[in-house]
Q: What sequence folds into this?
């Protein structure tokens, strides 16, 4: 049943997919404005938090904003050069190095939110005695959302050779991946607009991009967790904002609006 569901995603209107992807991208941008500016806000959702940042500029940290904007300038400036594939890494490293060397106060670091655990997660069976009807139905809702978002991501990043995405295969991969993640104390995840946009802007051209990301994540957890913990948070926000902005399709959005009011 789950695999057959994938065949019906091809009938989802293109405008719906563009709306979904645009909404996710805007949500990412709004959610990262707080970290980019070093603001302290009280709102709960990303749009309200972004609105609070813009309407209360006195709460913005000038130092954090300067670090974040420097990272954005590096990403945009290097994206059209030979260093384009490394622009995101350079945008993380260079401003962070300046923050550490100059000992700039008030700039949040990754480890301020908590130390990154070192080493790979150990296998562990889920505690099925905690499975309740509400948890089961919640899991079903998450699965549906994850599958729809995955289908949207597949549309936003078409195959380089022009071949159509295989929704059934994507759905199976997400299911197998989430079951495997549950066996190593992982959380359910799906296709990520931000991660996909970041992969594309970093020069990824095939599925090896995602595999390489996983391998590097393993290296970071084993050997570089302490170093990554010192990365300036505004630089991370800048990378995610640039990736989300790059996934927006203004031309297609305009064409949809011009088609009909409906």
A:
């Amino acid at each position: 049943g789950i695999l057959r569901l994938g065949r019906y995603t091809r009938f989802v209107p293109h405008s719906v997919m563009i709306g979904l992807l645009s909404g996710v991208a805007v949500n990412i941008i709004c959610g990262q404005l707080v970290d980019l500016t070093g603001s302290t806000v009280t709102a709960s959702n990303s749009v309200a938090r972004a609105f609070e940042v813009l309407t209360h500029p006195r709460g913005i940290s000038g130092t954090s904003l300067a670090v974040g904007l420097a990272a954005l300038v590096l990403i945009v400036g290097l994206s059209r050069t030979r260093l384009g594939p490394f622009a995101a890494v350079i945008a993380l490293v260079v401003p962070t190095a300046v923050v550490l060397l100059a000992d700039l106060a008030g700039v949040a670091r990754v480890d301020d939110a908590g130390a990154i655990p070192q080493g790979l997660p150990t296998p562990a069976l889920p505690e099925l005695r905690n499975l309740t009807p509400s948890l089961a139905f919640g899991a079903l809702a998450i699965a549906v959302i994850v599958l729809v978002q995955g289908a949207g991501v597949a549309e936003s990043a078409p195959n380089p050779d022009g071949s159509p995405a295989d929704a059934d295969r994507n759905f199976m991969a997400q299911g197998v991946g989430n079951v495997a993640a549950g066996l190593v104390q992982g959380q359910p995840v799906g296709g990520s607009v931000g991660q996909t946009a970041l992969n594309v802007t970093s020069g990824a051209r095939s599925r090896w991009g995602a595999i390489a990301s996983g391998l590097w994540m393993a290296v970071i957890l084993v050997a570089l967790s302490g170093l990554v913990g010192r990365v300036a948070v505004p630089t991370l926000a800048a990378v995610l904002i640039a990736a989300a902005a790059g996934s927006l399709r203004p031309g297609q959005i305009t064409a949809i609006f011009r088609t009909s009011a409906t």
Q: What stands out?
A: Residues 1-5 have pLDDT under 50 and may be disordered. The chain has eleven helices and no strands. The two ends are 32 Å apart (CA to CA). Residues 14-37 form the longest helix (24 residues).
